[in-house]
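Hello Y.,

Per our agreement to keep a running log of every chain we model this quarter, I'm adding this entry. I've kept the format consistent with earlier entries: sequence first, then predicted structure.
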Amino acid sequence: MKAFKIMLFSVLVLELAGCTAPQTSENTSPLIQSRTPSEPLERISVVWGVLLNTFDDLGHEMAAQRMAQTCRSMSPILNNTWIHSRRRGSSVLIGRFRSADDPAARRLLKDVRTIERNGRSVFPRPILVRIDPRKRPEDFGELELLRVRGLFPDQTLYTLQVEVWSDFGTGELSAAQVRNQAEEVCARLRREGWTAYVHHEVDRVISSVTVGLYDNRSIDAESGLDLDAALIRARKRFPHHLVNGEELQEPIDPRRPALGTRRQAPQLVEVPKL
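Predicted structure for the entry above:
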């Protein structure tokens, strides 16, 4: 089981994109006061849709609206084209499904591929994508990491991931159990005075617990050493990364298995942007 966790966790841990000059700066008091846990899973009305196109330039909403109008006049198949917009871009989609495995979704994918103009396929490679309708920080529960985007909408921020809960595809834990376990850990750490957050992945049964908020001044770019006193304290308090409450073992050198394993340290991960 431990070996399985080691292999799978390489997929779960978020990488620090562009962290050539990590910046850390934590406020010692919580930025978001927690009184209630995050919203129940059932209230997150995630849907799947067939993606036709995306726009991320200035004026992306208007561009998406123009395309949606064109699509509706192009074929009866596209009568129910809809738009999902966020601050950073807009998507044009067709169909709404509760699951990517819905047979109707597969049929719609096939139908969309058959749409032609001048003998050429208009959408040769449509794909099914997950759409989370939550767009604003206030849409998230008070424990949730994305709630901080209400205060820092665009700033690049990092947080120390100290624990992950997941069923690892085994079905041994339900999505609700995974969420509850992570939220209980998060709430306990807040009671201890830590600025703790929880982050739930909606389309996978994974919930992570993180501590602190840091910017790109927290780690020396050349040496990789921590510069922020709050980050140093957090690493001292949380020396090992936990998975489902247990320490995670990782290879000392994947190329030299004979060297054995070591306990994995917490990971600095980037706070997602809305």
